[in-house]
Amino acid sequence: MEILLQQIINGLVLGSMYALVALGYTMVYGIINLINFAHGEVLMVGALTSWALIGTVQEAMPWLPGWGVLIIVLVISCFVAATLNFIIEKVAYRPLRNSPKLAPLITAIGMSILLQTLAMIIFKPNYKPYPTLLPSAPIAVGGAVITPTQIMILGLTAVSLAVLMYLVNYTKLGRAMRATAENPRVAALMGVKPDMVISATFIIGAILATIAGVMYASNYGTVQHTMGFLPGLKAFTAAVFGGIGNLAGAVVGGILLGLIESIGSGYIGTLTGGVLGSHYSDIFAFIVLIIMLTLRPSGLLGERVADRA
After folding, report:
1. Is beta strand 128-129 parallel, antiparallel or unpaired with respect to 222-223?
2. Helix, strand, or coil here: 146?
3. pTM of this prediction?
């Protein structure tokens, strides 16, 4: 039971990060029917930016506690990543908005490779240790342990999701996003500016991805220019699993995928007689994707985006 509880805690932490990234995928898809495959690289840029800033902030403000440093670098990294995603949408996707669907898809893949290459040139290709800014002493929970960093991840994810749901459901921007997702032409006739709404969606997605990237780096203690590819791919799987285009589906898909991956990696060695080990945990995300696309292509919670006229 202690092992199971530990894997559930690890799965919730991992699933929280997947959920934040999956929300970026599902918001963009829900509004403009585009899969932004460069979204994982936005996570990477946010994490690498925070890593580069930590030393500078600590030198400038040596009296600041670790959590204060983390907040400052997180805010600056969110601004950098949001600016980058805004430029990506304006330069790479907006000119292709009325093109065949294959064109923006190929552009997104190309943008992902471009960002990885630029990050490799700027930050160098080696793995870099991410400083530990929060206390590292684990806290016992019913036979399992949880670290302050993992508690921070769960808390920050809950706050981010609450803010996003409030933004989408109770603000003017949220109503404009929902109207644009329903029918951008009619929304434009009603005074909504679809271009502004789409840019705002990309900015919000970048902020969520940066939060996930900083949490990912804090939890695993390392950053590198390819670090966003696999989490981005798994988050896309989570979005499809939950029902791409549906915000609640992205959250459910992310949490469930994290739990499946964590629990599966804890028991895969026993189930396969030692043939597979925990380092094969990545296969679970894609097994789930294959099963879901086969049995229920619309995902667990379906898709709320209406057909456009």
Report:
1. antiparallel
2. strand
3. 0.89
